[in-house]
Amino acid sequence: MIQKGAKVDYSSNMNRDSPLIEAIRIDSHNTIDIMHILLSHTKKIDWKNNKGETALIVALDKLNREICEHLVKANADKKVAYEWAERTKNEKALEILDNLK
After folding, report:
1. Which of 2, 50, 54, 91 is the most buried (most CB within 10 A)?
2. How far apart are CA 60 and CA 68, in angstroms?
């Protein structure tokens, strides 16, 4: 679908989740593969949905360190994620962020 022009920087749901956020939220056995395809075509890795969540925040909320690592390597904004983790007092998310390279 992407090769035929499907938009990856677009949201069609009420939450305004990007396809990247949706893929992370679903968390299937092939999420990493889907995420890499979307990351290679998106210009908005730090897209915020109507709750102010980015893909990195959604991955942190799920405590998925592997996805967080991939997002940070793709230059996801850690500052916004830190602010979220501090505001929500999510100690485990802060720990993940502190250990990301």
Report:
1. 54
2. 7
Does residue 84 lie in a domain region?
yes
Backbone dihedral angles phi then psi of residue 4, each to the nearest 5 degrees? -95, 10
**Cβ-based burial of 24 (10 A; exposed 0-12, middle 13-18, buried ≥19):** buried
Residue 50's domain spans which residues?
A: 19-99
This prediction has a pTM of: 0.84
Helix intervals (H) in the chain? 19-26, 31-39, 55-61, 65-73, 78-87, 91-99
What is the total count of domains within the chain? 1
| Domain at 34, CATH number | 1.25.40
Cα–Cα distance, 93 to 3 (Å, whole number): 35
Residue pLDDT, tens place only, 13-66: 666 788 888 889 887 788 888 888 888 877 788 989 999 999 999 999 999 999
